[in-house]
Amino acid sequence: MNVKKMFAGLTGGLMLASVLPVSVLGAASYSQELQEAYNYAYSKGITTMSPIDNANMYGELTRGQLAKMIANWAEKEMGTKVDTTAVCSFSDAHTAEGDLATYVKKACQMGLMGQGIDKFRPNDKVTRGEFGTTLSRALWGDKYNGATPFYKNHLEALRDAGIMKMIDTPNQMEIRGYVMLMLMRSVNVVTPSECKDPAVILACALGGDACPARCKGKTPDTTNTGTNNTAGDLNINVVDYSNQIRSVPMVGISIFNAIKFDATNDVTVNSVTLERVGLSSRSDIKGVWFEKDGIAVSSRGTVATDGKVMTNFNKGFKVKSSETLDLVVELSGASAGAEVAFKFIGVDSTAKNAVYNAVTSTYRTAKYDVAALDFSNVGGTGNVVYKLGNQSELTFGQFKVSNQAKGDDRNVFLKSVTFRNNGTADLNSLLKNVKVMRDNKVVSKSVSMDGRNITITLEDTINAGKAVVYTVMGEVASLERVGDTVQLELRKDRDLVAYEASTKFRTTMNKPIQDNSWIMKNYKIDGGRVTLTNTAAFPKTVDAGSGSSDVVIADGTLTVAEPIKLPKMTLAVNNTGVVRSLVLEIGGSRYASTVNGTAFVFDDVYVNKTASIKLIASLESLPAHNSVQFVPTTIGSLAFGSAKGEYTNNSEDLKGNDIAGAVQIAKINVKEAQFTLKNKASSTQKVTLTESSIKTIFEGEMVAPKGDINVTEVTLSGLNATGITDSSQIDLQLYINDTPVSNATYRRGNNVVTFYNVGTATKTPSKFRIDATPTMTQTGDFVFDVVAKGTDTNGNTATTAAVKTVKLSVVESSNVSVANANAVSQVVNEGSNAELTKFTLSARNGSINLTGLKLNYSGSVAALNGQSVTVEVNGNSYTATSTAAGVEFTGLNVTLNEGNHNVVFTTNINTDGQPNGVAVEVASAEVRGDFPTVTKAINSKYLFVKAFPKLSVVSAKDNQLVVKIENVSDDDITITDYVAVNADPTSTTLNGQSVTSPIPVGKQVTLAKGQSTELKMNITAAGTLKLTGLKYQVVDGTPYNYTVNDNYTNIATWGTLQVVYKS
């Protein structure tokens, strides 16, 4: 069905088709504009249905559904704020489906719908007049209120703005697809609120980087009636005026002159009026506008019958002191030999005085074919699927630009290109660090993006007859919607801006009409090695009683391809003091958060396989009607921020933006509770099959805030009692205020156990604890729902909400892992108790007994043969004798509780007789005990010396690198040589003396402890100058010569010791 034809008339057949479902009509078809409207709506979250056939584009919508769509759109796109003081109460709001009642109130408090009425009619269908009125209010406030009928002025304003084409059928039912279409048109016509900020207006007027992409061409009008001229003087001049007649091609776009605006104070220019002069006709001219850096900053004006043309400065062009713009004219090719010039005859601005008695140079049209360009994609329009996390930089399009001017010297300067994204992604939120490459070099000067468009400013030359391939690359900033796509398209020929290098004439396109060759590949970002997905239909708002425990506020799935440690996750809360604790549950295992100010922080979360993920809150006992919202509102890349986790198999970094998808966190509405249990325990309790110890699975309190409750029973319901063997059982003991009151046994076939005669719950909280003693012949995980029941003083039954115990996990045996190995290279002074290496030993699934440790060196280290090595673990020290190949500790008997334990190895290093120091590389570590032996690659490197310097950058600019060399050791050091890349050998100085490599003995510098000197190097050709090493000598009876390079991280931050050549 063609949506344009559907609205062309109201014939019976079309009206019937408009209400028939797609299942009756067959597969739906959509015009290009309607497809674009759906892409826009999907990228903004206005619709969440995918693909388009599931979005019910031809379906009618209710007033409640419109309230949700318009409120979300106005808030995100127009910056409309909610007036929470506005009284918006409707007697029928509760009849709205799902969560629409919330949006009914929100739309009212935004001033969009429902003003001055008692009934909202949320389930009534929306007419064209109602939707037009609502959209008009979102765009212009109450500007068009007051007409009869109520929608008249609103619809006319939308028609005049080009947003609503058909307004003569106001009582026609509106459809969802057309709503999306008009919302999309509105963003292209009407100014978002953020663009009205004075600082933004200035940045956009000047074409600066601080101008948000969505505000380019959208800064607001400044009304100037002639009585509001508040600024100083404005003077407009033609910078490059010439009395000589200049030639321009009779067809195409040309820059006529550079126009300079000078102001004594800040001035806002709204429009400039010009008059055509010279021996030409208005038919010679197609349009006139102003540009800055190849990007239009004013509207396209056309010459009227009186010869005048007005161009509006994109709704507010700020002039601070002095600004220069290009006056651009498009000629039609009506006649050769026409002479065209423009005289400035008017300016609308905030200046008190304006002088604009200026005329451009005269341009004579000539038959001249400017260089033509050909644009095409590279590799067609196929599909490319990326798995997030496999690589940091991704390609999002490749295109080829060919200069068709063969056989002459008409080189072309490529200035800018604008693409439209046909995919579903919002480019602003998806991408970061976007750049354009040519021949592996960055040629983009700046990149700006709004939701669907990306404009790239380039500085690149394409020689005559040559073709150049460009690659658009970027990084994924955040992927909260798995499967989002990017497909860039050159929509119009004028979206590619290039000039002949010699004449400055703008080039033409060989094919001026868009075809498939202007569309690039479709790039889909799928979930990668780590993906979060939301559980379908999980609510966005949950109700919970005051003091409740175990309130599930997020539910989803964490999919992993290999074991990981999650990055540290931080969730702030908007209402402090309401949430008592926050727990992350993954696959049944719980991780407690720590509190940092108003935020809850999760760290050291390890995940071995794909599992469910839940966020569970416990609340304080506070008065009802508090609400809590976490920020960010999802478990996803925003919550992980810049923190790093790791893929534990290979210690590779796992960054937050490598995690695809997100799990929604529900808002909590707190209600008053009558009788509650709270579990403050959060950590999984683990025991082995051979262990029969007491584990606390519930530790919290019982409270009755509204009056005493006689608690008659407490039940524990297990979900897997039938899976327990006859020879296994779990003995349970209930304590109230640390006094045992009842016991029970959980065994095969007994799915529910009950404690009786519990006592009285009062307003004063009672301690409530359940201990478990497992006697097991099988492994398994056990979690119980705990419910207390009783009666109040009036005999009414009272029951608590179910609260879960922590997981009791029975495992085969404990295990251990080696993590956070110190795989860095360091230079260390010789001496006793010198650190040899260190790592973290993690005991899991209960305590472990450590019986042995072994370090393996890489190669033979003769200096350590026979040396005593000490290891410190769990507060105890143990000694063993090293060989040249390694050191082994046997006969240990160390009990390590579950958790992380630091293991540090030290030894006595004497470098006497070692003229180049002692280099030690620990290749791996072996850990033995009552668990499978673990071998972990360490790869730590240490160079032990008599003394060493520290290097730091003093300055890196103007093609010169200045490095400070400081002696931080007790012994004197003498600088004997340096190692650098791309350094000019004729201009290097040390301590102010010209030196070469190696440094002559007479110019070598000796530094005592605390002394420093400067090494200065220069670069004279393209490339990067880097300092990568230093050689020095220490005399301790005999000379010792050491070389330190950029492998040793404690000597310098080597990445800062460089400078890039600038011509």
Structural class: mainly beta
Helix content: under 10%
Report strand %. Answer: over 45%
In DSSP terms (H or I, runs of 4 or more residues), the helix count works out at 12
Number of strands: 78
Return the domain count: 7
Q: How does the major sheet shape up? A: 6 strands, mixed
> Radius of gyration, Cα only, in angstroms?
37 Å
Oligomer description: single chain
Distance between the termini: 60 Å
Low-confidence stretches: 1-27, 219-227
Mean pLDDT: 85
Q: Going across the biggest sheet, name each strand in turn.
A: 6-5-8-3-1-10
Characterization of the model:
With 1063 residues, the protein is mainly beta. It folds into seven domains: 3-193, no CATH class; 221-366, Immunoglobulin-like (Sandwich); 372-524, Immunoglobulin-like; 530-671, Immunoglobulin-like (Sandwich); 676-811, Immunoglobulin-like (Sandwich), CATH 2.60.40; 815-944, Immunoglobulins (Immunoglobulin-like, Sandwich), CATH 2.60.40.10; 948-1060, Immunoglobulin-like. Helices cover 10% and strands 46% of the residues. The protein is built from twelve helices and 78 strands. It has a six-stranded mixed β-sheet, with no helix packed on it. Strands 17-16-20-14-12-24 form a six-stranded mixed β-sheet. A hairpin with a 4-residue loop joins strand 54 (784-792) and strand 55. The longest helix has 15 residues, at 63-77. The chain is flat. It starts with a helix and ends with a strand. Mean pLDDT is 85; it is low at 1-27 and 219-227.
